[in-house]
Amino acid sequence: MNKVVILSGSPAPGSRTEKVLQFMGDKLQEHGVSVKIISVREVSPETLFHADFQAREIHRIADFLAGADGCIVASPVYNVSLTGVLKALLDVLPRDIFSGMPVLPMMTGGTEKHFMALDYALKPVLAFMKGDILRGIYVMDKQISRTGNPPIKDEETLRRMDGQLAELLGRMKLKESTLCGDAEVKG
After folding, report:
1. pLDDT for 35 beyond 90
2. Where is the NADPH-dependent FMN reductase-like domain (predicted)?
3. How far is it, in rounded angstroms, from Cα 95 to Cα 2?
């Protein structure tokens, strides 16, 4: 069974970003994928503030990521960038934690003017950490319902999301078949 870790960079419980991530996780589970959602709120402020690379909670998150076949990393837009708390978490994870792993970046924001934060803020950090970065998804706050199911009613946004999730699944299968092929050649 494929495993996906979802990293939420939202410091606010019950945020729109987390609502969308839960929806994306549910869609992946419908395809037989095991999903683990990790929030930045699970990491103590002391660990992040003091950049404690050796903290047990950092090792726990790194272990989940090391066992994953794919990852979704999401953040609301704060000052045309990712949240500082997500950046602090990424800073204390091993630099190559996403090595060869398909990574789907996702951001939520208040205006269409902030969509470039995905390309200029989040994707470069994930690429530096050696991820196989997908195009990504930007969702405007007005397209997200905190109480609706599904939380996104905009058909175009849902279509883009479905396309990116399908690409994530496809890249995970491709990576898996490549690894199996390598094992056959060696064996």
Report:
1. yes
2. 3-141
3. 23
pLDDT band of residue 179 (cuts 50, 70, 90) is low
Residue type, 22: Q
Is the pLDDT score of 27 beyond 50?
yes
The answer to whether 114 and 80 have CB atoms below 8 angstroms apart is yes
- Euclidean distance between the first and the last CA atom of the chain, given in angstroms as a whole number: 23
Domain borders along the chain are: 3-186
Q: Check residue 14 and give left, alpha or beta (phi > 0: left; psi -120 to 50: alpha).
A: left
Q: HSE-up of 43 (CA within 13 Å, CB side)?
A: 34
pTM: 0.92
In angstroms and rounded to an integer, the radius of gyration of the C-alpha atoms of the chain is 16
Helix/strand/coil for 4: strand
Looking at domain 3-186, its CATH class is alpha beta
Sequence-distant (6+) residues with CB within 8 A of 157 are: 137, 139, 143
